[in-house]
Amino acid sequence: MLELKNFPDEVNDEVGDPELQFRFVVDYQLDDLNLSWATRYIDRVVTYDVSIDDGSPEDLSPGYISSVTTHDLTASYHFSDNIMLNGGVRNLFDTLAPGYTANAIYDLIERRAFIGIKIRM
Q1: What 3-state class would DSSP assign to 117?
Q2: 3-class secondary-structure state, position 12
Q3: Secondary structure of residue 63 in the 3-state scheme
Q4: What is the DSSP string of 43-74?
Q5: To bridge 32 with a disulfide, which of 13, 67, 78, 101 should be the other Cys (CB 3.0-4.6 Å)?
Q6: Rounded to an integer, what distance in angstroms lies between the CA atom of residue 81 and that of residue 44?
Q7: What element of type H or E holds 11?
Q8: pLDDT of the residue at 109
Q9: Which stretch of DSSP H or E encloses residue 87?
């Protein structure tokens, strides 16, 4: 059995968790065209060295991953009741979390585009 003692995450429950995060979305529709802009903000997070010994100097003066803001742009067009084309760009400005992090809360894939068509038979 592995016993962890005197670690900061047992005290404040916020290791790696931002105090604030939000998503703001604006949609616009003009006839058969739909446009959407989404902004996501993740507040800075604390990082601790949670090694199995009795702690480290990083626990007394922790480091931080800075806040991150990403933007997504999507569009769709309805050619008819049966045909719709959509596409967009995720992480439009190619913003990465500063420093090394493998936490899934961040956009780890960088900028990417997509396109699709939906046809109803």
Answers
A1: strand
A2: helix
A3: strand
A4: --EEE----SSS--HHHHS-EEEPPEEEEEEE
A5: 78
A6: 45
A7: helix 9-12
A8: 80
A9: strand 83-90
